[in-house]
Amino acid sequence: MFFTYLRRELRRRRKAALVVASGLALGIALVIIVSSVSVGMSKAQDKVLESLYGLGTDMTVTKAAAAQGSGGTERPRFEFDAEDDDATQSTDRVMVQGFQTLAAGTVDTVGEQDGVANAVGGLSLTVMKVDGQFKRGEFKQDESSGQSQGGPGGGQGGGGQPQGRVEGGGASFDVNSFTVYGTDVTQQDLGPLTSSRITEGRTFKASETDAEVAVVDSAYAKEKELAVGKTVTVSGTAYTIVGVSTADSGDAAADVYIPLKQAQTVADSKDKITTVYVQAADSQQIDTVKAAIQKNVSGTTVTTSADLADTVSGSLSTASDLASSVGKWLSIAVLVAAFLVAGLLTSSAVSRRVREFGTLKALGWKSGRVTRQVIGEALVNGLMGGVLGIAVGLAGAYAVTAVSPTLTAQLGSSGGGGGGMGGGGPMGGGGPGRQTASRTLDIALTAPVSLTTILVAVALAVAGGLVAGAFGGWRASRLRPADALRRVA
Amino acid sequence: MYQLKGVTKRYMRGKNPVDALAGVDLTIEDGGRLVIQGPTGGGKSTLLQMLGGLDRPTAGTVELDGVDLARLPESRLTKVRAESIGFVFQSFNLIPTLTAQENVETALVPLGLGARTRRERAAEALESVGLGDRPTHLPSEMSGGQQQRVAIARALVKRPKVLLADEPTGNLDESMRDEIMDLLDGLWKEHGLTFVMVTHDSSLARKAPRVATIRKGKVTVTENAAA
């Protein structure tokens, strides 16, 4: 009887049921879309951070920022000898990114701290290569004083100083900058290279600690027409390319990866590193580990993923803020409104059925049975709203994923502070660790719907039905059969 | 057997108290037939509600077979209504979305009977009121007389001791009125029910063996030997 009565009543009041279900559906759909977009945002942020750190890295340790003026004044210096006219000259400078290094032993010190599962060191370098030629100017003598060849300060002609001017001449140099990352080939499961996958050739072998081999990023390889088997020259040393890597998202951490020892040699930074990549034993204890390292390893700055996430700006950050603030509150407001509307409509429906429920009570139906009937109807309305809401929500999330709007993430310079490259520093940026000032990544937004989100939606549908049923049930339970029949008499 | 003693029902109309029933004493024997009549607002329906356990008096006792309905807890009063009292209303009060058979079954739901037993007894009840061929009809697909027959079947399907009818022919035309009254009289005799009916219709009152006339909350009972 319960289900027969329920079915017939819902069929009779299709429009009211549809209004209640639609209201709940709207709220539930919003919750699904906002939740899934938020998850998408979070995943996008994770991708941004992974592209910097690589998978599994919970924090990095870098040298603490030096006092202003003491560390930021170094600049690369290029010197060219006077050579034959029009001869091409080339020179390159290898600089440690940020000019701040730590002793290689720091890796072991960090690794010994409580809560540290793994620690790996790396050396980030920037190579600036300048090549081109000087061209002498041509001295042109005035017609009255004859002509003579010579550069500035050239020889003096026979009778007195020649009268004329220098024309042409100058210098044409091409500046080429690329980043090199010295990786610990014995521990390749941590560090920037883990955010890329080898798409050609192979990665380093553990035995290649001091081998002249390199892995190049696919974008750099394409630009410079490099491939496995060819060589890439860093500060005069030719490295055989053994693999080409492709960043999983955004830009790669470096253009060229070489063994750490080789990087230390070319940068003249023996036993030096720029960054220690740290994996915590327990992801819930990251703050504790950070505090321990900062306390026990002096002169270092520890940057966690959370610290770095705070520096993410751009449309990803804006959209993320929007989803977590406006989206969340809009969802809550719509849900509350939908719950209230459902409750009031159900209560109003009970008021219109006073005679019906009064009759049932006169026939001996207990208040509880009448209330259950009302709640049952409201619950079915809620579930219909839930099904409708889940369908609309899934469609919305699918649409977001299908469109995949591109969000830009800019990583701010506060992730470690200091160490700026100064006016004459290398262009382009970014590398691992704190040298993230100008790093910009484009991330395609997705809206993955998890089972948890669906379960939350179902729970909301049931809750909506129960809230509506509570309104109506309370009203029905207060009906007295005599009151109901008095309207009839 | 009903035994009412000093039954008073006081309502507040604004700030003024109004006695719908003012110290009513009344006895109705088992199997008796009583017609209650009187002017509108005189307290007829209020008295019927007291008899049916739908409302409680402000003062006095309403005993049914020695049990005071006025003092009975709500759950037990509901049980008494479910098992012992059948109601027939002026506007039929059928559930519009349920078929004739399902409407009759609603009276059996509180008794906790199985679905099959409910179906069988409902079918029998419909048969007894001449609607055995229309179990699947909705109220909207039936005439007023047929709807009232369904309501009577619903009242009797649980085999109650008492049948209370509030203006059962009030919404019917004259031919239908006689038909329904003949049916009710026949069932009363057949089942040995205690039958109490409220009516405005003097012609129906004249046919009753006992008439309670209620005016300003006071009841006067007259016996009709000719009926």
TrEMBL record, chain A:
Domain of life: Bacteria
The keyword Membrane belongs to this UniProt entry's keyword annotation: yes
Topological relation to the membrane, as annotated: Multi-pass membrane protein
Region (Disordered) residue spans: 138-169, 414-435
Principal location class: membrane
Domain MacB-like periplasmic core: 177-295
InterPro entries noted in UniProt: ABC3_permease_C (IPR003838), MacB_PCD (IPR025857), Macrolide_Exporter_MacB (IPR050250)
Subcellular location: Cell membrane
Biased composition range(s): Gly residues: 148-169, 414-433
Keyword Kinase part of the UniProt annotation: no
Transmembrane parts of this sequence: 329-351, 378-400, 449-471
Domain ABC3 transporter permease C-terminal residue range list: 331-446
Keywords, sorted A to Z: Cell membrane, Membrane, Transmembrane, Transmembrane helix
Family per record: Belongs to the ABC-4 integral membrane protein family.
The protein's name: FtsX-like permease family protein
Annotated organism of origin: [Kitasatospora] papulosa
Automatic annotation (TrEMBL), chain B:
Keyword Nucleotide-binding (UniProt): yes
GO molecular function: ATP binding; ATP hydrolysis activity; transmembrane transporter activity
A Gene Ontology cellular-component term: membrane protein complex
SMART domains xrefs: AAA
SUPFAM superfamilies from the UniProt entry: P-loop containing nucleoside triphosphate hydrolases
Span of domain ABC transporter: 2-227
InterPro entries in alphabetical order: AAA+_ATPase (IPR003593), ABC_transporter-like_ATP-bd (IPR003439), ABC_transporter-like_CS (IPR017871), ABC_transpr_LolD-like (IPR015854), MacB-like_ATP-bd (IPR017911), P-loop_NTPase (IPR027417)
Pfam families cross-referenced by the UniProt entry: ABC_tran (PF00005)
CDD domains recorded: ABC_MJ0796_LolCDE_FtsE (cd03255)
Source superkingdom: Bacteria
Keywords, comma-separated and alphabetical: ATP-binding, Nucleotide-binding, Transport
Protein name, UniProt field: ABC transporter related protein
